[in-house]
Design a protein that fits this description.
297 residues; Arc Repressor Mutant, subunit A; 2 domains; four-stranded antiparallel β-sheet; 11 helices; elongated; DNA-binding; sequence-specific DNA binding
């Protein structure tokens, strides 16, 4: 692989990645290769820049301190941090990724917030690449160079890995612990109840029994009854009737189909039984409900 060509291809990609509630814009993603005497003058960025060193070493000068960055290490310059860099008399290669973070939602504190907190609070200095960010950078270069199917999304995934593994290394060296919430699946009973409710709604035209739901869910009838009772306070039959009633109201309110057709569509053997059901559940027949709704609207 031609490293210079791979870097050129990688740097041309327009990349945006997401971590939880953040969108990360990749401003550049490239390789710098230098030999002999060289100097990068004092400058700053409004974004974060990750500097990884696979080969050689160099002197990094900040306004308040300086340090040598060596092979197998990296450092991160935060927004507004002025820095300059000078050769240390040998061949030097640096992998660089520059990005900014845009927060989409302030209501929740997730991993993205922790990552940003680490980057903002950590002192700029050399960090060993404990978790292999450079390995992922090299894979990104290969993907950009060969451009096989799926390469673009693979590079976005690798960019996330580069950033996360760098932050993990910073936390490791500072022996810092962070606590935060992450999105979790619903509790098992919530998940099962949602499936039960959806099954009833999808099959509301049938004469559903608890055994039908139990067979679909691969649970016992007792388990179905317990889940529904726990979540609604109703028996299974009462809950089925509740959903059937809501659908009947929707059809009476939003359509012009006859009450007989509604009765058929909801699985009643006749309009009479539908009228009896509606009156028992609601207190008056469906015809009166439809007329009262029309008067309101």
């Amino acid at each position: 692989m031609n490293m210079s060509k791979a870097s050129e291809k990688l740097s041309k990609l327009d990349l945006q990645i997401s971590i939880d509630n953040f969108v990360i814009n990749i401003l550049w993603f490239r390789v710098m290769s230098l030999e002999g005497e060289w100097e990068i003058s004092r400058h700053t960025h409004s974004s974060f820049e990750f500097h990884f060193v696979p080969v050689g070493s160099s002197l990094v000068i900040l306004d308040d301190h300086e340090f040598i960055i060596r092979e197998g290490e990296f450092y991160v310059t935060a927004p507004g941090l002025y820095h300059e860099q000078r050769s240390a008399g040998e061949r030097y290669i640096e992998y660089s990724i520059n990005c900014d973070f845009e927060k989409a939602d302030d209501s929740v504190f997730f991993e993205g917030d922790v990552i940003l907190e680490v980057l903002n609070s950590s002192k700029c200095g050399p960090v060993k690449d404990h978790y292999g960010s450079m390995k992922y950078f090299e894979l990104a270069l290969k993907e950009a160079y060969h451009q096989e199917i799926g390469f673009y999304n693979n590079i976005k995934s690798l960019a996330i890995m580069i950033i996360i593994m760098a932050v993990r290394a910073i936390v490791f060296e500072n022996s810092t612990s962070y606590f935060y919430s992450v999105p979790k699946k619903l509790e098992e009973t919530d998940y099962r109840f949602n499936l039960i409710k959806k099954f009833i709604e999808d099959n509301i035209t049938s004469d559903l029994r608890v055994n039908d739901i139990a067979n679909y869910m691969h649970l016992s009838s007792k388990q179905i009854n317990r889940i529904i009772k726990e979540k609604t306070g109703k028996s299974t039959k009462e809950f089925i009737n509740f959903i059937k009633l809501q659908e009947a109201k929707r059809l009476l309110k939003n359509t012009n189909i006859s009450i007989k057709e509604i009765a058929n569509s909801l699985g009643f053997s006749s309009e009479y039984y539908f009228n009896q059901f509606f009156k028992r559940e609601e207190g008056f027949p469906p015809g009166i409900y439809r007329n009262s709704i029309k008067k309101i609207y």
